Amino acid sequence: MPERNKHSFQTVVSEDFALVNQCIAEQLHSDVVMVSKIGQYIIQSGGKRLRPLLVLLTARATGFQGHGHIPLAAVIEFLHTATLLHDDVVDQSDLRRGRDTANALWGNAPSVLVGDFLYSRAFQMMVGLNNIKLLKILSDATNIIAEGEVMQLMNINDASVTEEQYMEVIRCKTAMLFEASTHTAAVMSNVDRKVEQALRDYGNHLGMAFQLVDDLLDYEGDSEAMGKNLGDDLAEGKPTLPLIFTLSEGNPEQKALVKEAIEEGGLEKIDQIVEAVRTCGALNYTSQKAREESEKAIASLQALPDSSYRDAMEDLARFAVARTF
Question: Membrane-spanning residues where (predicted)?
Answer without folding.
Answer: none
